[in-house]
Amino acid sequence: xxxxxxxxxxxxxxxxxxxxxxxxxxxxxxxxxxxxxxxxxxxxxxxxxxxxxxxxxxxxxxxxxxxxxxxxxxxxxxxxxxxxxxxxxxxxxxxxxxxxxxxxxxxxxxxxxxxxxxxxxxxxxxxxxxxxxxxxxxxxxxxxxxxxxxxxxxxxxxxxxxxxxxxxxxxxxxxxxxxxxxxxxxxxxxxxxxxxxxxxxxxxxxxxxxxxxxxxxxxxxxxxxxxxxxxxxxxxxxxxxxxxxxxxxxxx
Length: 252
Prior knowledge:
The protein is α+β, with helices and mostly antiparallel strands. It has helices at 17-30, 43-50, 54-66, 95-100, 120-126, 156-162, 172-178, 198-204; strands at 70-73, 77-80, 85-88, 106-115, 133-142, 145-155, 184-195, 211-221, 226-235, 239-242. It has two domains: 17-80, Arc Repressor Mutant, subunit A (Orthogonal Bundle); 85-242, Chorismate lyase (3-Layer(aba) Sandwich), CATH 3.40.1410. It contains eight helices and ten strands. The protein starts with 16 loop residues before the first helix and ends in a 10-residue tail after the last strand.
């Protein structure tokens, strides 16, 4: 027996039935009636339960899938997705400090380092010679599941100092400011969707070719000196970013 209650048939409303159904199912997901990865009733069951058409059910489920609340497995049905962690992009924060503040468990594993890496783009971004750049690769974990691959480029002198610290539990931003005495000022950030290659897929435990988020970030000191250039490859099924935009120059 389903835990969802039927939509009352005596309620008069101009709101489309598929929206009413979508909101009913969304409410049951958000209040925990249906837990992560729980299977939803079949389309046929929903048609009978709510006395609506199959078209209405499919539209409601399609919208819920677009919202990221459910996913479909061909031949098996619809299932509740894992809730995504949310990071607000309102200030310059490291991933760890942002997630710990929300009560998540997070840590990193350094998987590779290379000093004197010849990366022309990183050299241009950091405005230093290619031979003076260190690359640090880390896999970031959230609640013990891999969530991102972080590829960081810093001046070699900074990189060697960072490797003397505990990068497994401490953000590079925190170390730069509190251990190396380098206050940070601002960052330039670009976000795009890319397809994961074999190496990234293996590290993040996703299928090769899965859509993931790629963040390119260049961080400056408070004196406007570029200090940290990064490529962050994040699982789109486990993390989302929220941005608050304010309208300026609004006329009364």
